Amino acid sequence: MSSAPPSILSSPSTALPIALTRFHRTRLMQIWRSAGWPCKDGLEIDLLAAGLVALHTAADGCETLKLTDEGIRTLAVARQRSVRSLSGHDRLAQKFAAQLLAAGRIVWTELSLRAVIEGAAAPATAQAVAPLPHPTLPPLWSEDTTPAARAAANVWRMARPDLFSVRNTSVPAYLQPMVHEIKYSRADLLSDLRHDAKRQAYQWLCEECYYVFPEGIAEPEEIPEHFGIWVLRGGLDDGRFELLRPARHAQCTLPFAVWLALCKATPLRPDDEAAQAQLGGPDLPLSLPPLDEPAPAPSTTPLQNP
Description:
By secondary structure, the chain is an alpha+beta fold. It has helices at residues 22-32, 42-49, 69-85, 88-102, 147-152, 186-193, 196-205, 256-264, and strands at residues 7-9, 53-57, 63-67, 105-109, 113-117, 155-159, 163-167, 178-182, 208-214, 228-233, 240-245. It has a 6-stranded mixed β-sheet, with helices on both faces. A 3-stranded antiparallel β-sheet has the order 1-2-3. Strands 5-6 form a two-stranded antiparallel ribbon.
């Protein structure tokens, strides 16, 4: 008895006028980049009714969602609109992020990280009259100069680096966290240089900190010497980056709060990276033994002392 061919629940001939939001477009992109397993929620009802996706039912009863031609066209229009709406700052950040990704680094953008900066000295006050002596009580905590006690005297500040990246490694000492601040105009750069606390926060979060800006925005002598400088020679489309000055390296260990923020955020991914490359394919089979192949017997050779 032959199995029934897969059935397709195609979109209706007259699609319903659904007002698409960014959540609908995000779900379309998720379906496009995945195997298409349905979630059975309200967003998929809207997408099915609008004719942007089609429900496929295989012979074994498994259901998957596939984008229709109209769904692919909707994604393409939204992507081109997003590219046109990007500012020069965002395009410069994307271009340099692509260079970091090509170098094998893991890159985040739009992070909000807590950093420690040096606290301001307390203002001098007039010496007050000595109060009456009180009974001696045991201290509530140790008045030592441990790192935790010194850090408590500092000031916490929220740092929002344009690009934060680490090496793709499993050795903590080789992470080399970096901050790259993107400056597309001279006014933006000068405004940043006036905020010393902001620069302290960047240096607390990384081992090397760089400024990235187009050629002609500023001279290297205008940038503090402990910051590195990358300049873009040429336009945003065909220009290339050149390192004018390396940053001063300072050893840095990322605190737990920074790791937690990185875990909650999503790193950037190259456009040409396959979403499911690790799952194998026709040209890249999985390196797993067949299910019916017995596992190799453990070695019976006795261990020899060196």
